[in-house]
From TrEMBL:
Species assigned in the record: Albidiferax ferrireducens (strain ATCC BAA-621 / DSM 15236 / T118)
Lineage top rank: taxon: Bacteria
Descriptive protein name: Twin-arginine translocation pathway signal
Length: 168
């Protein structure tokens, strides 16, 4: 094959993948009526395990309880976003919820539930250091939402050394 043929094949393949991913995200959104779908909850739970690995309680039952309590806070945070941000987040979560989107955007082969913490951390690091703006923005959105929702709970403040608001 010639170089020009490879470039054409690559461009056509990329277009097909983008269209297929966009169609999938429209058919399977990450948010329904402003609330996280079960697939989106899986994405956030897995991402939270990876991002908060060193800040979660060491006891497995307590760590699971912290993650379970995190999902409703993420849901509340998402509901407070403006409609255009909800629409973009829904597309992102819909895309990450599919096998092709997860592999393409995050570089993660196993599904979110079965991926290990190390695999998700590696995928997030890959997104964080990517030169593609879409991957970097996706990482930043997931990171910021998880961090804001987790540390908005007063029970997590001692981890940061934050004593809480001052009484005036």
């Amino acid at each position: 094959m010639q170089r020009r043929t490879w470039l054409k094949l690559g461009a056509v393949s990329a277009t097909v993948l983008i269209l297929a991913g966009g169609a999938t995200a429209l058919l399977q959104p990450g948010l329904r009526q402003g609330r996280l779908t079960p697939g989106a909850q899986d994405v956030f739970t897995s991402v939270a395990r990876a991002i908060l690995d060193s800040t979660l309680p060491t006891e497995p039952a307590q760590a699971q309880a912290a993650l379970t309590g995190l999902v409703p806070r993420i849901d509340a945070l998402v509901q407070a976003l403006p409609p255009h941000a909800q629409a973009e987040l829904s597309q992102l979560l819909g895309l990450l919820g599919t096998g092709l989107g997860r592999r393409t955007l995050a570089g993660l082969a196993p599904d979110w539930r079965s991926a290990s913490v190390a695999e998700v951390q590696q995928a997030l690091q890959s997104m964080r250091s990517s030169r593609l703006g879409l991957r970097l923005q996706s990482y930043q959105a997931l990171h910021d939402i998880v961090g804001a929702a987790y540390f908005s709970d007063a029970s997590t403040w001692p981890t940061l050394g934050y004593p809480g608001p001052l009484t005036i």
